[in-house]
Amino acid sequence: MRTAGIRLGRILGVEIAFDLGVLLFGAMLAWILAASVLPDAEPGLSPVAYWSVATLGALFFIGSLLAHELGHSVVARRNGIEVEGITLWMFGGVARLNSDATKASAELRIALAGPAMSFLVAAVSVGAAIGLGRLDVPRLYLAALMWLGLVNAFLGVFNLLPGAPLDGGRVLAALIWMVRGDRLEAKIWAARTGRVVALLIVAAGFAEVFVLGSLTGLWTAFIGWFLLNAARMEEARYAGEAALGTMSVSEAMERDPRSVRTWMTVAAAVEGPLHGTTQTVLPVLDWNDGVAGVLTMAQIQRLPAERWSTTTVGDVMLPAASVPTATPTEQLTGVLDRLRMQSGGLALVLDGGRLVGLLTPDGISRAITVGRLDRRRGALPGSEPSGSAPSGSAPSGSAPVSPPTPPHAPIQHWEPPVRHR
């Protein structure tokens, strides 16, 4: 998930931002229009005419990408999902949803909303080009409108390819979810299909280069490579959620972590609580034992060493309001969507407002590994998942039963994922 970039404002209550890759993307589109599309449609005009219309066309296309993501966002909000915002970037845009859909039908509606908006923009653009053509509007503008329509139609079709992270992958996941009744299984299969689709796009790009002799195939191959990595990340994410099952936060958190006070100097924190520990994050407590924030290794490294002894932890800490929180009894998979890259992907675990633990990426990774081992162990003949009641002697002719866990050994509980229907 991409983080927000440079903020532009709000549309329909949704915060809009962009990163600098949009400028490069827009410039490339304007160059294609000014150097090729528009001169072919209306030759003999000045470069100023081509570039002015091309710039408008590129801006309208970026606006159509925003419309695509707004389609997702509006339908998501109507289905009870909070929208954090929309970020436009080099490869288009992404609507940042606060959580996944809880029903397959909602997942399907949200996925289809974006391509539907692209097809609508395509129809309006082509229709406007045809209508204005009867009014003797200069062909330069008609060519730009027709290009905008055709590109949006292609965008809608491309996004419906059946593989995550494309919208077609969401559609495929929703349909599998409807049939199989398992959201995570559907997501994993959509991601695996996305890897196949991405490899085909990469192959098509190289074929365009070596067979047709067109260097634009390099861009196609690059897009396929990006989609391949994104599909792998999605598969890893949902496979991890499946491994976590119904584990609680308490089973993955670091209990009673070392902490520092707001008035301590950074030097005292480094020489004290951080010395001789594997923690890379320290919760920061105030005078009343309330959580004021967290101090990360990254924040310490950004501060020059000569200022450690004169700078307090409170001056450089990440405020508590910027750090997600969880309770020990919460299901671990329900917390994952709340983790933020800005806070290092961690969460403070509070019980009645009191700090009792720290949920870190390392803790989640360990829990995923244990969950996968438990799944493999449960699949073996005669074995049972961890935490299940010890079995007695096996009946004659049955598979051997695993011995009970020694009373002194820690037990990691795991149950199969909850199926949403």
**SSE run:** EEHHEEHHHHHEEHEEHHEEHEEH
Radius of gyration: 27 Å
Structural class, please? Answer: alpha/beta
What is the total domain count?
Answer: 2
* Tally of contiguous helical segments: 12
What is the total tally of β strands? 12
Strand content: 5-15%
What are the segments in which pLDDT stays under 50 over at least 5 consecutive residues? Answer: 383-421
Morphology call: globular
Q: What's the layout of helices and strands?
A:
Blueprint: E1 6-11, E2 14-18, H1 21-41, H2 47-78, E3 83-89, E4 92-97, H3 104-133, H4 139-159, H5 167-180, H6 183-210, H7 216-244, E5 254-255, E6 260-261, H8 266-271, E7 281-285, E8 291-296, H9 297-302, H10 313-316, E9 318-319, E10 325-326, H11 333-336, E11 347-351, E12 354-359, H12 361-379
Parallel strand pairs: 2-3, 6-7, 10-11
Antiparallel strand pairs: 1-2, 3-4, 5-12, 7-8, 8-9, 11-12
Helix pairs in contact: 1-2, 1-4, 2-3, 2-4, 3-4, 3-5, 5-6, 6-7, 7-12
